[in-house]
Design brief:
Strand 1 and strand 2 form a beta hairpin. Helices cover 25% and strands 31% of the residues. The chain has 308 residues and is of the alpha+beta class.
Length: 308
């Protein structure tokens, strides 16, 4: 990633180097925070944040379930205020920005697990990320991780809670050590859940399938977008329980996520997916999605939130 000049912190724009917290910040020690990742695209109308409203709402929902009040420096942040703060951070950092990460976390200095009364903070960081999984056009290689996707008995699986991503970092490290790009994580009953930071889709027997929300996956906003777009293109889409056999015997597999966008998969656990090449369905959906996020399809104009 490439850093930018300013970080939005509790209502003020500060220099990148000055956005600091104490080493005893509760979130640093116990993972008590909620974050989002949102793509910023360059369109003919200027910079646009993709599905900003939905991302901001998920951030607020995550804070609600974590019991973190959205009040910073005496100002309460609802949906409108949160969206405007994210726009302000993007505007302040200019054309280089392609990814923005809002994070609400307990910044108060506290030793102990009790989060009640610990001061929260709200930071919005802008970066240039580029291609999250690299520029290799041959497709991604996956392994099946030995680490399990945390389920709803471990925490709110549908929210992006900071501490919950420890399992994802372990799975990612495992994948990289084995020469793969990403790892598939199973849930507590052995069903396919998602990858370390992406939802997963398959094309099998003439249908697109993806794990259901109840399978302890993140309710991905890119996932939701691809389901809508695929159905609009005439593909049947099913949200169901997915077994490892179904994944291994699919004609096509691809991942979706804010950072990854749409990333086709050509190998899983050393075995080729389909014919081992990027598939036609994933390619067509990717092309449509690329047009949408760059403002070239007026049907989905409401998904774009222009910065200026």
């Amino acid at each position: 990633m490439d850093k930018t000049e300013k970080i939005w912190l509790n209502g003020k724009l500060v220099d990148w180097e000055d956005a600091k917290v104490h080493v005893l910040a509760h979130a640093l020690n116990y993972g008590t925070g909620v974050f989002e990742g949102i793509r910023v695209y360059h369109t003919s109308k200027g910079m646009a944040i993709f599905r900003l409203k939905e991302h901001a709402q998920r951030l607020l929902d995550g804070c609600k379930i974590m019991g973190i009040d959205m009040v910073f420096d005496g100002k309460e942040y609802g949906l409108k205020e949160t969206m405007e703060a994210i726009k302000e951070a993007v505007r302040a950092n200019g054309e280089a920005v392609d990814y923005v990460k809002p994070c609400v976390f307990l910044s108060g200095e506290e030793v102990g697990l009790n989060p009640i009364g610990v001061t929260p903070a709200f930071a919005i960081t802008c970066i240039h990320m580029g291609n999250y999984l690299g520029a290799d056009n041959s497709g991604a290689k996956l392994i099946t991780s030995s680490w399990q996707r945390p389920d709803n008995l471990c925490g709110p699986a549908g929210a992006k809670v900071n501490g919950a991503y420890v399992a994802s970092t372990l799975a990612k490290r495992e994948a990289v050590r084995q020469g793969a790009n990403e790892a598939v994580m199973l849930n507590s009953v052995g069903h396919v859940a998602e990858c370390t930071g992406e939802n997963i889709f398959m094309y099998r027997h003439g249908k697109i399938i993806t794990p259901a929300v109840a399978e302890c996956i993140l309710e991905g906003i890119t996932r939701d977008s691809i389901i809508t777009v695929a159905r609009d293109m005439g593909y049947p889409v099913e949200e169901i329980e997915v077994s490892r056999f179904m994944l291994a015997s699919s004609d096509e597999v691809w991942m979706t996520g804010t950072a990854a966008e749409i990333a086709p998969v050509t190998m899983i656990d050393g075995h080729p997916v389909g014919d081992g090449k990027i598939g036609e369905v994933a390619t067509k959906i990717h092309e449509k999605f690329s047009d949408i996020v760059r403002g070239k399809d007026p049907k989905y104009e409401s998904w774009l939130y222009y910065v200026n």
